[in-house]
Automatic annotation (TrEMBL):
The keyword Oxidoreductase does not apply. The keyword Transmembrane helix applies. Keywords: Membrane, Transmembrane, Transmembrane helix. This is ABC-2 type transport system permease protein. The chain crosses the membrane at residues 49-68, 88-114, 135-159, 165-193, 205-225, 271-293, 344-365, 385-410, 431-457, 463-485, 505-528, 534-554. It comes from Caldanaerobacter subterraneus. Pfam families: ABC_tran_2 (PF16949).
């Protein structure tokens, strides 16, 4: 390789430049230097890092425990079908499809909405160098996701077949190349789509639309899966896969790279397996090469197109242009535009309105084994209004805590927060606008779940009304908690909109406080129940306590917000 590079003028310099750029991109995207300095040099708030690591370890452990049991069933079924590679093909197929569908969302965000794009453009860098460095950053993200899906499957197959060291080496190569083809397809589509979609407004629309369609695809897929009985043991999983073997084969054949990778691993000791491995690698490199060529041709043009502003075909009159708007209304509209104009923000909040109702639907309607009849018998009775309303309240609080809108209300302004500070408007009014928008969006997110729940469980309208009565102050409570946390410790130092939400620990804190609120409410209810307090009185007391908490916490939030707005840089 050294001899080859010597014969290519500037090859070493270009490679060093690219590696340097890549290191900078990874450091910037993950905030590695900032994390090292904050937690290991200054040693400030080290507990945040410990809490995050603990949460990740527990979550991964629970997931792996359940997932490995299912993989063992799939492997046993594959052996029963005399096609041991089928388990590998199915898992690899699912991993690559996940990358293909959700990768598009990451690609749009990192390629076009990162703040560092404006810094990189004037530098003496080729378009393909900038794009491939960003592509590699996304690839690292995908490896983290695929590690949870593929590595356990590789281990189950290897242990089950008594495979040798060569199998694990080839499996590692397949793992490293597994996201390349789907992510390259996403990137190529994004490049050409952005090139010929000149208005940023349309780019946002396409991003949100494609992401929602991706979610819909998974819900429909899950619905058809759940139409079959739910299996709780390995033998049942074996029986299910044997009966649906043709469907599994058809699915994997629809994306050939999954089969190539599976055969490369399962037939690692034969020439056929080696051929599939070469094919898998070669096609991955071809797609990457085509991506580099596309980047060189259209990436800068697509970025420039994103800066273009098209004329609106509206008749502008003096009366319309001079139309006044109240300060609060103007602030709410400003908050809405700051939220909706960036697809990353919308896709972190709005899908909750789709996901939860669909989970209800596919769990109960798509799967008759879930005991829907008994549930409906209970929920449709007006005498059971109390527990139905309490469950509705708890669901409303949890969904509100999951939206992450209020818990990032200040952080999402980023380095532009100074504009809010110099506005001739009081901090309390700006805070009120954030609270109103957060609450309205929360209601929008909760509403579909209410409608689906009312339809499926035949809940009486009186019970629905009581649930709404209990939930509205609760929605305010969680939004106030989010604003309190974000005003106390805002995260302004981000260079990618995604970090304002995904990389903001305030979202986690709000969710933890939300869960704590649920526990407190349930504890109070059970304590009152032990003293035989009537259900009507309990509901009234819970409502009063939530309202009092709203008032106290809002006053505290207003103090923190005022301090934040008047804080010197």
């Amino acid at each position: 390789m050294g001899v080859i590079r010597k014969n290519i003028p500037g090859a070493d310099g270009k490679m060093k430049k690219f590696i340097s750029l890549l290191k900078t991109q990874i450091n910037s995207y993950y905030g590695i230097s900032a994390i090292k300095y904050k937690y290991f040099v200054e040693k400030k708030q080290r507990w945040e890092l410990d809490l995050a690591i603990f949460g990740i370890v527990v979550g991964v452990a629970v997931f792996l425990f359940i997932y490995v049991m299912q993989l063992e069933g799939l492997f046993a079924a594959s052996i029963a079908l005399n096609q041991p590679q089928l388990m590998l093909a199915i898992v690899l197929f699912l991993g690559q499809i996940v990358t293909l569908i959700f990768g598009f969302f990451w690609v749009i965000s990192v390629f076009y909405f990162s703040d560092d794009v404006k810094i990189l453009l004037p530098l003496p860098l080729q378009p393909y160098e900038i794009l491939l460095s960003k592509y590699t950053v996304i690839l690292v993200n995908e490896y983290a996701v695929l590690a949870l899906l593929l590595l356990p499957a590789i281990a189950v197959y290897g242990i089950g077949t008594g495979a040798g060291i060569l199998y694990y080496l080839i499996a590692l190569v397949v793992f490293l190349f597994s996201p390349v083809i789907p992510l390259s397809i996403d990137s190529i589509i994004a490049l050409w789509l952005m090139r010929f979609t000149n208005l940023r407004k349309k780019k946002d629309f396409f991003t949100v639309l494609i992401s929602i369609l991706a979610l819909m695809f998974f819900f429909v897929f899950q619905y058809f899966v759940n139409r079959n009985p739910q299996y709780t043991d390995k033998d049942a999983v074996v029986d299910f896969l044997i009966k649906n073997a043709d469907l599994a084969k058809m699915a994997t054949k629809s994306f050939p790279p999954s089969l190539w990778g599976a055969y490369a691993m399962s037939d690692y000791h034969s020439l056929y397996g080696f051929f599939n491995l070469l094919l898998f690698i070669a096609v991955s490199l071809i797609f990457t090469g085509f991506l580099a060529l596309s980047a060189q041709k259209v990436y800068f043009k697509a970025l420039m197109a994103g800066q273009e502003i098209g004329a609106k075909k509206k008749t502008v009159t003096l009366e319309r242009s001079m139309k006044a708007s109240g300060a609060l209304k103007a602030l709410i509209l400003r908050e809405w535009k700051l939220f909706i104009r960036v697809p990353v923000y919308a896709m972190n909040v709005l899908p909750v309105a789709i996901i939860v109702p669909f989970i209800f639907f596919i769990s109960f309607v798509g799967n008759p084994q879930m005991g829907l009849e008994k549930a409906v018998q209970y929920t449709s009775s007006p005498t059971n209004w109390f527990w139905v309303s309490i469950v509705g309240l708890l669901v409303s609080l949890f969904l509100t805590g999951s939206t992450s809108l209020s818990s990032t209300a200040f952080s999402r302004e980023g380095k532009m927060f100074y504009i809010s500070k110099i506005l001739p408007i009081s901090p309390s009014l700006q805070l009120r606008a954030k609270l109103i928008l957060g609450s309205l969006v929360s209601i929008f997110v909760i509403l579909p779940s209410y409608i689906v729940g009312w339809y499926i469980f035949k809940i009486p309208l009186v019970t629905v009304a009581i649930t709404v009565f209990l939930s509205l102050p609760g929605v305010l409570l969680i939004n106030i908690l989010g604003l309190l946390i974000d005003s106390a410790r805002p995260f302004f130092d981000w260079d990618n909109p995604q970090k304002a939400m995904k990389g903001n620990v305030n979202v986690l804190f709000t969710l933890v406080l939300t869960l704590l609120s649920l526990i407190i409410i349930l504890t109070i209810i059970f304590l009152l129940k032990t003293f035989n307090v009537s259900e009507i009185l309990i509901a009234i007391l819970i409502e009063i306590l939530i309202i009092l908490a709203d008032l106290k916490l809002y006053s505290l939030t207003k103090d923190f917000a005022t301090k934040l707005y008047f804080e010197k840089e």
